[in-house]
Amino acid sequence: MAQQTQGKRAAHLDGGGQYKSQIGDVVKCSRILDDNPVVKISQQLFTGLKSLFFQSMINNSLETFPKKICTQMPLINWMDFKGNHIKALTNTTFLECDALTVLFLHGNQIHLLPANTFSSLGDLGELDVSSNMITNIQRYIFVGLKYLQKLKQSFNPFSRLSEDHFESLQQLQSLDLEMIEIQNINRIMFQHIRNIPHMYVCKIKEGIVKGVGGPYKNVQNHAWVLLFHIASISSPTSAKID
To answer: Where in the chain is the domain with CATH 3.80.10.10?
Structure first.
């Protein structure tokens, strides 16, 4: 991966450093523009970057994305926008991001994820939307993400999930729900991710959790709830609660 370097400081960014590496017969470019006070980026910023593989703009002040961020970057594989001020995504933001495998949106101010936000990201393997302001997760938000292996949704204020929330994520290997109080948790939610080895969970309010009975009727810890559900669906050894 490209060497990290401090980007050019500007309030509105129309260009930036581009760094090349030779991998086989393909020249793959990386651009790192971290720690800048950039508020807005235009579509022209990405013009001519047909070989861009990696884009990082960590800890800027971005408030929005272009309508279609990948239009000029058909080979973009990894995008990191942690620590910005993005408030919302649209169902066109990631259209044409066909090659994207890693997307980091941690630590923004995202409150809305439209139903088809990620539907075009068929090769996505890792998604981080943790530490945002997401209050509601649309049903079928992950449809089409059949290769997703790592999902972070922790530290968001939503409290309910649809029963088919994880239905498309049968390759999931790591799920982070830390500090999420899922009020309607039940066994059906996890039936499609029965082989997941890692879950990161947290405490919930004491009381009866819907769908849990017997010795698990009154629980205080998500770990016990999730362990119970997964152990009931597959073998007890297939679930590891960290």
So the answer is: 1-158
Locate 105 and state its tokens.
């949106």
pTM for the whole structure? 0.76
Q: Which CATH architecture has domain 1-158?
A: Alpha-Beta Horseshoe (3.80)
Q: Using an 8 Å Cβ cutoff, are 65 and 89 in contact?
A: yes
C-alpha of 127 from chain center: 3
CB distance 226 to 239 below 8 Å: yes
Residue 201 has a pLDDT of 67
The amino acid sitting at 204 is: I
Mean pLDDT by 10 residues, the chain (242 residues): 34 37 54 94 85 96 94 95 96 95 98 92 97 93 94 95 91 91 83 80 45 36 42 36 35
* Whole-number Å distance between alpha carbons of 71 and 153: 27
SS (H, E, C) 103-167: EECCCCCCCECCCCCCCCCCCCCEEECCCCCCCCCCCCCCCCCCCCCEEECCCCCCCCCCCCCCC
| Residue owning tokens 């590891």 | 240
Closest CA to 206 of 187, 186, 189, 224: 224
Contacts of 214 (CB under 8 A, 6+ apart): none
Q: How far apart are CA 100 and CA 76, in angstroms?
A: 6
